[in-house]
Design brief:
six-stranded parallel β-sheet; alpha/beta
Length: about 375
Amino acid sequence: MIKCSTFYEMLITRGISFFTGVPDSLLKDFCAYITDHVPDNQHVIAANEGGAVALAAGHYLATGHIGLVYMQNSGQGNAVNPLTSLADPDVYGIPILLLIGWRGEPGVKDEPQHAKQGKITLQILQTLDIPYRILPENVEEADLCLEDLFAEISTHKCPAALIVKKGVFDSYKLKQTAKDISLLSREYAIQKIVDSLRPTDILVSTTGMISRELYEYRDAIDGNHSSDFLTVGSMGHASQIAMGIALAKPDRQVFCLDGDGAALMHLGAMAIIGSRNLNNFKHIILNNAAHDSVGGQPTAGKDVAFTKIAIACGYKSTLVVESQEELRDLLPPLLATQGPALLEIRVRKGARADLGRPKTTPHENKAAFMEFLSK
């Protein structure tokens, strides 16, 4: 394993001083180290990976220094546009170092949403003509790997990538943790939402802890998951999946369980939802101001007024709750109100240590869900 401090020094000695990206579970230790040791004006946790590439490009244009962009390999899709149409040598030739966590690596057991992305991670880089290296676990070999990759960046003025396998970085626990914005438990809030739904209501949940907690509660009740679509991948797109369903099923109430990081990743979705006057659309953002599934790195959720944004985008009504009492009192009005409506529930960070994962496959979830929608 490589100590986060050692790898950080390898980057600093090669001129890297600006860091940006979207946190990843395989990179969480290094991301935590960056958060604790890099000044705020040199580290930005971006809304999405494409935005991070653009931030690094802006830093290079202003300083002539290379920036580092960290991401899970699932974020490659978000990054493709600025990598090809901005940073590529055929356009502006902007050097950037990509640090990519390799979820779904072939031969390594992982969650189903990472299977395809894991298979094509290296192929995507090859297609984009982005030179890459797989980061070795040995410090001396890692240093040589960086030397080789920086030589390519310098020669070709191009983005280049370091691929990080599971377990490469030594453990580092985030010290710079913000206070919880609420004492309300996310799992409790999800349970109360589920309890308040009618038998015909449709629920779409975002990726990460939210879908896992929803699945476990359904298991505890009766084991019937047919009314829920678990968006196990595609971070930031749950609200548009829900909108597509709401358009097709105008006589059914559709609820989207979103997270603050997911909502921020593709915030423009709220403008599209608000523009269509969907009476049957209810948007619930569970906001803990953190990327809870990948190490607890902060989001901008603490300082963003989701309710004001929703109203500006055309939502008819918005509510914010921070306590069990407020949740109990305001859920009924949400159910009764005309959509599109938004409920922001402020919750604390963290989840149960023994929280499980869905036992059904995505294909089984899809089949049961589509059968439920057809009734």
